[in-house]
Sequence to fold (264 residues):
Amino acid sequence: MSTQTALLKVMSDAARKAARGLNRDFGELNELQVSKKGAADFVSAADLKAEQTLFEALEKARPGYSFLGEERGLIQGTDKTHTWIVDPLDGTTNFLHAIPHFAINIALQREGAIVAAVTYNPVTNELFWAEKGKGCFVNDKRLRVAARTRLDESVIGTGIPFLGHGQHAKFLKELHQISQRVAGVRRFGAAALDLAYVAAGRLDGFWERDLGPWDVAGGHLLITEAGGKVTTIEGEDDVLGTGSICAANLDLHPLLVERLKAAA
Ligand code: IPD
Ligand code: CA
Ligand code: CA
Fold:
């Protein structure tokens, strides 16, 4: 059954509201004759605006919840048991380059556990969502992770380190371990959507390091609710704290972790 609970509806409505602004800004960016610097400033303003819209909508619906946003950091609420974990624009570099592949990401943490997630792609109008124990969906369609069991048939997503970010030499070793054994490796540029794609069975697996909690919190729940497994690259539990993630179905997950460990 794909009927959203009141909580999921709050999160979906907030995401759609922020998406209207991002879509407008994305359209305008395409038209703008701005300098490189001007475009970057325009995008960070769009990002901040989206986070403000999300903060207001979520605070109005659930007053007092704490809020951890990529742009504004942690805002402690009166309710310390609930925290929204929000990336208002995942895929900023895509957005800046007019590549239509980015997302709004909202997760709800209750007493340390992620209990609800929404990842929304405003361009394709795909809303990925999950609530703990209730399954994973895109719009009203139920999702399952891919059924492939062999690396040589699998397409694996990843994130490539870039200027000033990530561990370049380590990544190349990991890529070397994976790329020669799989059907393809993809770098789409929005970690939240990569994880949603694993939940949807579009990607068979994914790994990346040095992500923020707002990149992985929602996707972690989407994938486990779609029947997949999520750990750090080392096979440990603390994905949110370390920003290291390896996700796949139950057959492929140990194979990926094994190859990534061999790169260490
Ligand atoms: C980034 C994207 C990207 C990943 C980066 C993230 P942002 O998030 O998810 O795919 O490789 O490490 O920081 O900055 O676009 O929100
Ligand atoms: Ca992000
Ligand atoms: Ca972001």
